[in-house]
Amino acid sequence: MHDKSDTEKELVGIIVGGGPAPGINGIISAATIEAINNGKRVVGIIGGFKSLFEGQQNILPLTINDVSRIHAKGGSILRTSRDTPENAQAKFKTLLATLKSIGIKYLITIGGDGTLHMANWIEREARGSISVVHTPKTIDNDIPLPGGFSTFGYQTARHVGVYIINNIIEDARTT
User: Fold this and answer.
1) Per-residue pLDDT tens for 47-64?
2) Which of 70, 121, 142, 145 could bridge 25 with an S-S bond, Cβ 3.0-4.6 Å?
3) CATH class, range 6-174
4) Residue ranges per structural domain of the chain
C-alpha cells in the first residue's frame, strides 16, 4: 500500500459566509487538521461566496502548520462576505460550476441562516458530487440546534452587549 500523492487525495473546501463571529478560525483550524489527518487535502475559499458567484477560483491551500495556531485570532483567515446575488439562479450555477472546477468533493460551510440555505442548495444541486457540512455561526442565534444549544458567536455577542449596556446605564446614572 502506498500513500496517495497530494493530487490523488480528495479535496475539502472551507468557506465562511455572513458576518464575523468569534470562533471562526477555531473551526477552520479543527476542520483542516481533522481532514488532513484523514488523508484529505484542504483549501480555504477566500472572500466567502462572493468570489464563487463571480466564478473566481480564489483558494488558499491549508496545511496543519498554517492553521495550528489560528484558533485564538479574531475574524477569519479566509475572510467572509454577505453578498446575495441579484440574479440568483444564474449566480448559483456559476458558484456550483466553480466549486466543481476547483475539484471540491467535500464542502464545509461556516455561517448563519443564509449560509445554511446556500449549503442546502449546493448539496441538493450537486446531486452527490459534493457533500456539504454546515457549521452554524451567528450572533443572531436564529438557527435552531438540538438541546437548546446556542450557535457559536451568540454568547460572546450577548456578553459583550450586556457589558456595554451596563456601562452606558451606569454612565447615564452618574451624569
Assistant:
1) 999 999 999 999 999 999
2) 70
3) alpha beta
4) 6-174
